[in-house]
Amino acid sequence: MAKTRTSYRCSACQHTVAKWVGRCPECETWGSMDEVTLLASVSSRPGASAVRAGGASMIPTSPALPLTQVSSTSSIARPTGVDELDRVLGGGIVPGSVVLLAGEPGVGKSTLLLEVVKQWAERSPQDIALYVTGEESAGQVRLRADRTGAVHERVFLAAENDLATIFGHVDQVAPTLVVVDSVQTMQASDVDGVIGGVTQVRAITSALTSLAKGSGTAVILVGHVTKDGAVAGPRSLEHLVDVVLHFEGDKHSTLRMVRGVKNRFGAADEVGCFELREGGIHGVSDPSGLFLHHRADSVPGTAVTVTMDGKRALLAEVQALVAPSHMPTPRRAVSGLDAARVSMILAVLERRCGVQLSSREVYAATIGGMRTTEPVVDLALALAVASAARDTALPPGMVVLGEVGLAGEVRRVVGVDRRLAEAARLGFTSAIVPSDQRRGVKDDTAGDPPGMRVVRVTDVAGAMQGAFERRRK
């Protein structure tokens, strides 16, 4: 026997109560209690009454199916047409998924998404994109689309910030991709709270997620970030969506990076590289050249290393300048590197390798606006500073990999094979790596890139000897 009864469930945390209240007693969200129909049943099985005595069960909207009967074709990613973004997404956007793209103001989020909706609409006549903006007028978006060449007849534009009106546009246009720019500017009229507040953002994200799951329409949400770079709004915002991407970039550089933070459909450590130009944003499939200063011969105070950003190997040039100082405390200036690790490397060079730096000013920086804190840069920084102090350049075509310890030892790094392969692809002919990188392998040269001479060292002093002796030869 079964009978129905009415209860109220919170749309934010799914907490259920018997009587309507204005504020959820579990998550303390205002105006989130919705009326639902519950099924209270009494079973003849022993113990079933005791199990059901304390509550009721929901009426299922669809039957539970064996896992073998669940179709997997509905979760196949569809390419957006922007290769670098597809790389981070794991092949493309999955129908019915919700993607959150967060970044600082002016970094280029809207420009990137205009390119996405244009490429999406060009794929087939059945694909329609709806771009909803709550921050700009329709005319402003059209001007940007004209400048970047993102105008297409199957890209629809709506300048709205009311959630109910947006749902009306979705019903009329029937898009396969919806972009909401941004979620902090949208408002649900039936939910209390200010625009951009915790209650409003959570309710809007929950509603758009339900839309995506129920209709199979892919949704991309643009989110703001706080001063420390985290996604603005409640932490539950990142749990509600399927994919979280961070759009990063320095205002003094044209380089932009899309970094995967969460991805239910693929790897969450991928990075996509873009270059922001006057005519729009363009993917950079080979970004290593942006971080290198191309010259015929090496100069004192420079060293090249290979960093790993996600699964992508990027070559980076480290520069150092050592100059005499007339101040009691010589200056130390760092750009793009971890200042604490730079101080440690300077101390190791002076104490373990005899490089006099206590009375000299030291400046250390990376090229192209790159910022890295990976320990693999330690040895390259040490050789760059030693090169600047000796006024002797490192051999041309050399890359340096290794973490430096306080005792002056060079420690192993992860993914050396991939790093050396990337360096060899770009024309580098020699490398200095930690000696224990291939521990247990009888032939130390096995697996080295063809045509590359690899020198393995145990400490910084050995690395300096190998680098500068080869330069003299």
UniProtKB/TrEMBL annotation:
* Region (Lon-protease-like) residue spans: 361-473
Domain named RecA family profile is located at: 74-225
Q: Tell me yes or no: is Membrane among this UniProt entry's keywords.
A: no
- Asked whether the UniProt record includes Repeat among its keywords, one would answer no
- Keywords, sorted A to Z: ATP-binding, DNA damage, DNA repair, DNA-binding, Hydrolase, Metal-binding, Nucleotide-binding, Stress response, Zinc, Zinc-finger
Q: Which InterPro entries match?
A: AAA+_ATPase, DNA_repair_RadA, P-loop_NTPase, RecA_ATP-bd, Ribosomal_Su5_D2-typ_SF, Ribsml_uS5_D2-typ_fold_subgr, Rubredoxin_2
Q: At which positions is motif RadA KNRFG motif?
A: 262-266
The cross-references to Gene3D superfamilies, in alphabetical order and at most eight, read: 3.30.230.10, P-loop containing nucleotide triphosphate hydrolases
Specify which residues bind ATP according to the UniProt entry for this protein. G103, E104, P105, G106, V107, G108, K109, S110
In terms of CDD domains, this protein maps to: RadA_SMS_N (cd01121)
Domain of life of the organism encoding this protein: Bacteria
This molecule's function is given as: Plays a role in repairing double-strand DNA breaks, probably involving stabilizing or processing branched DNA or blocked replication forks.
Q: Could you give the domain comment from the record?
A: The middle region has homology to RecA with ATPase motifs including the RadA KNRFG motif, while the C-terminus is homologous to Lon protease.
According to its UniProt record, which protein family does this protein belong to?
Answer: Belongs to the RecA family. RadA subfamily.
> What PANTHER family does its record include?
DNA REPAIR PROTEIN RADA (PTHR32472), DNA REPAIR PROTEIN RADA-LIKE PROTEIN (PTHR32472:SF10)
Q: What is this protein called?
A: DNA repair protein RadA
Natural source organism: Rhodococcoides corynebacterioides
